[in-house]
Amino acid sequence: MLYKLLRPLAFALDAETAHRATVTALSLSPTLPLPRFAPELEMEIAGLRFPSPVGLAAGFDKDARCPDAMLGLGFGFVEVGTLTPLPQEGNPRPRLFRLKEDRAVINRMGFNNGGQEDALERLGRRERRGIVGVNIGANKESADRVADYAVGVRRMSAVADYLTVNISSPNTPGLRSLQAGGELDELLSAVRDARPAGGPPVFLKVAPDLESGDHDRIVRAAIDGKIDALIVANTTVSRPSLRSDHAQETGGLSGRPLKQLALEQLRQFRSASGGSIPLVAVGGIEDADDAWDRIAAGASLVQLYSALVYEGPGLAKRIAAGIAGKLRQRGFAALSEAVGSSSTTPSRRGS
Ligand SMILES: Cc1cc2nc3c(=O)[nH]c(=O)nc-3n(C[C@H](O)[C@H](O)[C@H](O)COP(=O)(O)O)c2cc1C
């Protein structure tokens, strides 16, 4: 309700200015107690217990300034980052665009962040509560990108409930080539060697712009590399038909126009993995129907970012409540029973 009133104000500002103001306000706000969720929403993967399957995707809180505020607002887990070993400015502004008519966002931020050391200190000061994942990447100018990921794993393990190896941002030139065969094996073996004993699980975040054959190969590499879950997917460089003036901006597209592609990619990963590695779905999730479609297609958890811009912070709680309602309606005693329940047949929306 409050967000409906504030949204015109936020939309009057340039998108990045509005975003920065939001993160600052959240970082200064008093920490709310963690919400209680319906017990059947609990999901255990990679040795972690998620109280709700609805998480905040990476990129909203790149510098880990407000994870506790976001947990307090109703996210079952929060992923901060992408954090690179060294601080970097990212691309020149403007680099973030709202596509209002399409309920979408295009960004070419380019991993702007204050670096891992800063975030490490900030995360180290907080009281550990809720699940906070740390998404790591490579610096644009790095001479050895694989080494950057190893540094990130070693450095951030102490403060992360899980780590995400992000090789899927379209805004760092050449980064996504780390998804290719030989490079991926080399990267995942360096990541495996860098993991401290007793350290957090490691997730791998992939792009939605993959070709047939890529899914089998990535699943195999992830399992061989002891990756604990796949996050499907990052923003797309493709441009389905869009109405907004900003449609042709360079960068990654997210929000509603990514929905079908992200769901299709999730299905491909489910079929390639047969459930042998947990999947986290992200891309265009706006409501409980979308979240349910992903769970039924094989996702154990979901994440969102762009829909927050349009719907406001109450969205995570609304989606969680909607999923709990669907579980009850369909007679599932626990969320885990619903995962992959329609992986061969389409789900029944709204029923
Ligand atoms: C402004 C913006 C910045 C993002 N930055 C990152 C990032 O730093 N690291 C990352 O892994 N994903 C990043 N993402 C991608 C999101 O985490 C998510 O995968 C994508 O936006 C699809 O989800 P959505 O449609 O719910 O937004 C960013 C997305 C947006 C819109």
How are the elements arranged and paired?
Blueprint: H1 2-12, H2 15-28, E1 43-45, E2 48-50, E3 54-56, H3 67-72, E4 77-83, E5 96-99, E6 104-107, H4 116-125, E7 132-136, H5 145-156, E8 162-166, H6 181-194, E9 202-206, H7 214-224, E10 229-232, E11 252-255, H8 259-273, E12 279-282, H9 288-296, E13 299-304, H10 306-311, H11 315-330, H12 335-338
Parallel strand pairs: 3-4, 3-13, 4-7, 7-8, 8-9, 9-10, 10-12, 12-13
Antiparallel strand pairs: 1-2, 5-6, 6-11
The protein binds flavin mononucleotide.
Flavin mononucleotide binds next to strand 4, strand 6, strand 11 and helix 10.
Can you characterise this structure?
The protein is built from 12 helices and 13 strands. The protein is of the alpha/beta class. The strands form 3 sheets. An 8-stranded parallel β-barrel has the order 3-4-7-8-9-10-12-13, surrounded by 4 helices. Strands 5-6-11 form a 3-stranded antiparallel β-sheet, with no helix packed on it. Helix 7 (214-224) links the parallel strand 9 (202-206) and strand 10. It is globular, with a radius of gyration of 19 Å. Mean pLDDT is 94; it is low at 345-351. The protein binds flavin mononucleotide. Flavin mononucleotide (FMN) is lined by residues 57-59, 62, 81-82, 96, 105, 107, 109, 135, 166, 169, 205, 234-235, 254-255, 258, 282-285, 304-307.
